[in-house]
Amino acid sequence: FPPDSSWDAAYERELQTFQDIGDAGEIWFGEESMVRIIRWLEKQKIPLDSPVLDIGTGNGVLLIELAKSGYTDLTGIDYSPSAIQLSEKVREKEGMSNIKFKVEDFLAPSAELSGFEICIDKGTFDAISLNPDNAVGKRKQYVRSLCGVLKPEGFFLITSCNWTKEELVNEFREGFEILEELPTPKFCFGGRIGNSVTALVFQRK
Predict the structure, then answer these.
(1) Are the CB atoms for 76 and 56 separated by under 8 Å?
(2) What SS3 class is residue 156?
(3) Are 191 and 160 in contact (CB under 8 A)?
(4) What is the DSSP secondary-structure string of 60-110?
(5) 84: enclosing H helix or E strand
(6) Angle in degrees, CA 26, 31, 53, rounded to 5
(7) What is the DSSP letter of 190?
């Protein structure tokens, strides 16, 4: 093939990344945020049979990628029945029968939603925080729910577009300690460097 076709591929990727970052709705499902999560799990040598919960799974793509990386005990929940229908379609197309999808309200989780070693959130806590109806109470309930579904010493990986590291550490101080901050793209606005995305790993006490 011609020597410049690899450049085309690189530009395609650049463009895709720009579109992901340019559109806040997409960023939570952006490829780089999935890669960041999977790399961390691999670096920590998290056993492949560890129970993983994706909170607000959306189209289920993160769990598909985790399944492709060898993880076997995967559950995705979403408040929206149509999101779960979509994720089930994606799962069937990919032939990933070992992923469970359930319609669940994380603020009122069912009793069987428990015993997870890893919980992942990309944008769901943000969405709950933006709820005009009692956002503070809903955030507190989120933390309580998280304590209920995640085993002690389990890990919680959160990707947020709304909250700084300091704010998230404060929100999750009841029951969680911060383990590390994952690198995210930095953006420059008028000479000031800002992060529009924060990705943190917490451990349940």
Answers:
(1) no
(2) strand
(3) no
(4) -HHHHHHHHTT---EEEEES-HHHHHHHHHHHHHHT-TTEEEEE--TTS--
(5) helix 81-94
(6) 85
(7) T
Distance of CA 29 to the CA centre of its chain: 8
Give the DSSP H/E element, type plus range, for residue 136.
Answer: helix 135-149
Tokens of 72: 């076997």
- Enumerate domains of the chain plus CATH numbers: 4-16+27-204 (3.40.50.150)
pLDDT at residue 22, as a whole number = 45
Residue where the block lists tokens 């999560």: 37
The model's pTM: 0.83
Residues 6 or more apart in contact with residue 46 via CB below 8 angstroms: 117, 118, 155
Kindly report, residue by residue over 133-166, the tens digit of the pLDDT.
899 999 999 999 999 999 999 999 999 988 999 9
Nearest 5 degrees, angle CA 112-CA 179-CA 127?
A: 55
CA distance 178 to 172: 9
Distance CA 137, CA 124 (A): 15
Closest CA to 64 of 88, 39, 40: 88
N- to C-terminal Cα separation, the chain: 55
pLDDT of 10-68, one tens digit each?
A: 555 555 655 554 443 344 446 778 889 999 999 999 999 999 999 999 889 899 999 99
